[in-house]
Write a structure and sequence with these properties.
heterodimer; A: about 100 residues; alpha+beta; two-stranded antiparallel sheet; B: about 475 residues; three-stranded antiparallel beta sheet
Chain lengths: ~100, ~475
């Protein structure tokens, strides 16, 4: 399987990654190589193997429903570039 | 062309846990912005989610209530998209192995029962809230809601009208409240839905292209949005166009749906199992413990009300709409000792009207079940008439006294002494010779005049049936 440069651009957009346009072809080549490798593995008959959700063969531990986190808004908002009235401000997301 | 509407609903119910699904931050509604958003909810680097046991228990409870299979080993997945109210860049949800699979519920619309299939219900985290006004080119983000546990309940495309969709949504609303897994507060967004709507020529098997209407948070909006959307699609198809598969938003002010094109582009969620969470194992023991704790469910209660109290389908349906109302009614019947139908009439009639007028819920009723039962008893044993009972009810509402005390104090006891009623009638006949002559000459309507006079003379306390009988005799 080989990816087009258009597909590479779309994947980069979905992941919000900025890529140099002169590197698109190289990415297409490398990513296609990875997909080919996966295709090779797909040839193995796994019909008798149940899919693995996690490499550790363990189950999720559950926690009791208790509030343990205090309000640390002032501390966390020191990291934010802009805040107002307790809200985090971000570039407007609605047109 | 005859069109058939096809609707499927995705209902989001916020689970009534104290803490979030993957963190120990509080979930209480209405807190100051971002005071209940901890490092995990903010998606800060290096944090790990740990699943809330109570959220799992609630999901299993729901699964058992709709007769669904509970998945013994379900998996959490990342749903990837970028939006500022989702700081991690993905929502933790479930994809191909949801915790609840394949159940059903029965709805009644216009007296006809219909089974609606429930494809699945899965656990996921809610996103934060974006505020778009007042910030001069910025959006304000409140992440208090981020990480609140949600149960997303996905129906089969089994509904054929907006009415059925509303019936189904109301059914699930009652169910989650019975189960005490969601407070059902639609104004606060605790219970909301997305509607998938399409139309097809009647008789055609293949589904038409659907539009998804997002975030409907009232029964009325669900009905109006679907009806608008159906009309819109019919117009497009009948004028030779094609419906596009897209996400739309319902504007309740303009009563229309609008395309949300900006979200379209991101509609490639690239789900994959979340490496931060191990598979969720639910043992048969756990399931049986939850099953043992299930309350009587709405359908079972409704059937029991019909059988045990001789109520008709409508009364039983209304009285079991919420667990609180059903409990109130049963307490009244229990205290009154008999006459369930009369109890039902008072609970659904004067009491419901008074509560509605005062904006109170049944559990806030100033008239407690035993005091209403006291009133019902006095109606049943003919101490007071139904009309006087309304006066007593008002006094019950205004005070803490019992019905007996009010009847005694205000002298409202019904006059059932034949002699006393006859004496009053004789006086009225003597004082109104013209009306008597008129009545005897065939003006039947004048009968009401005599009843009115007698009631006036007795302060409304004459037993109405007795009064009618005696009047007829005397006026012959």
């Amino acid at each position: 399987m080989s990816l087009t440069s258009e597909e590479v651009n779309r994947i980069a957009w979905l992941a919000r990654l900025a890529i140099d346009s002169d590197k698109t072809d190289a990415y297409a080549h490398d990513l296609s190589g990875i997909l080919n490798f996966i295709e090779q593995m797909s040839a193995v008959d796994t019909s008798a193997v149940s899919p693995m959700a996690h490499p550790l063969d363990q189950a999720q531990r559950l926690r009791p429903d208790v509030v343990t986190e205090p309000d640390q808004r002032a501390l966390f908002q020191q990291l934010a570039p802009a805040v107002d009235a307790g809200l985090y401000l971000v570039p407007k997301v609605i047109e | 062309m005859q069109w058939e509407t096809v609707i499927g609903l995705e209902i989001h119910a916020q689970l009534a846990t104290k803490s979030k699904i993957f963190s120990g931050a509080a979930t209480a509604y209405g807190a100051e912005p971002n005071t209940q958003a901890c490092a995990i909810d903010l998606g800060l680097p290096g944090v790990l989610p740990v699943l809330n046991q109570e959220a799992v228990r609630m999901a299993v409870k729901f699964g058992l209530a709709i007769g669904a299979t509970v998945t013994p080993r379900s998996v959490f997945a990342r749903k990837n998209y970028f939006y500022p109210d989702l700081p991690k860049g993905y929502q933790i949800s479930q994809y191909d192995l949801p915790v609840v699979g394949n159940g059903q519920t029965t709805i009644a619309v216009d007296g006809e029962e219909k089974v609606i299939g429930i494809t699945r219900a899965h656990l996921e985290e809610d996103a934060g809230k974006s505020l778009h006004e007042d910030f001069h080119g910025f959006s304000g983000i409140d992440l208090n809601r981020a990480g609140t546990p949600l149960l997303e309940i996905v129906s089969e495309p089994d509904m054929r009208s907006a009415k059925e969709a509303v019936g189904y949504m109301k059914k699930l609303h009652a169910l989650v409240r019975y189960l005490e897994i969601c407070d059902g507060n639609m104004q606060e967004g605790s219970f909301r839905c997305d509607a998938n709507v399409s139309i097809r020529p009647k008789g055609q098997e293949k589904f038409g292209t659907r539009a998804e209407i997002k975030n409907l948070n009232s029964f009325r909006f669900v009905e109006k949005a679907i009806n608008f959307e159906v009309e819109r699609q019919i117009e497009i198809l009948e004028s030779g166009g094609q419906v596009i598969q897209e996400t739309r938003l319902y504007d309740s002010v303009k009563d229309e749906t609008r395309s949300m094109r900006s979200k379209e582009e991101a509609n490639d969620y690239r789900y994959f199992p979340d490496p931060d969470l191990l598979p969720l194992e639910i043992t048969p023991d756990f399931i049986e413990t939850v099953r043992a704790g299930l309350p009587e469910l709405p359908d079972a209660k409704r059937d029991r009300f019909k059988a045990a109290y001789g109520l008709n389908a409508y009364d039983a349906e209304v009285l079991t709409a919420t667990r609180e109302l059903a409990a109130y009614f049963e307490a009244v019947v229990h205290a009154a000792g008999s006459d369930a139908k009369l109890c039902a009439n008072w609970v659904m009639g004067d009491l419901a009207a008074a509560l509605n007028k005062a904006g109170l819920e049944i559990e806030q009723s100033p008239v407690q079940p035993d005091r209403l039962a006291g009133l019902v008893q006095r109606i049943a044993d003919d101490t007071i008439s139904g009309k006087i009972a309304k006066q007593v009810f008002e006094a019950l509402w205004e005070s803490d006294e019992t019905a007996d005390a009010i009847i005694e104090k205000q002298g409202l006891k019904q006059i059932t002494d034949t002699g006393a009623i006859e004496a009053i009638i004789d006086e009225i006949i003597a004082a109104n010779p013209d009306q008597v002559a008129g009545y005897k000459s065939g003006k039947d309507k004048l009968f009401g005049f005599f009843v009115g006079q007698a009631m006036k003379a007795t302060g409304g306390k004459a037993n109405p049936a007795q009064l009618n009988d005696l009047l007829k005799k005397k006026l012959q």
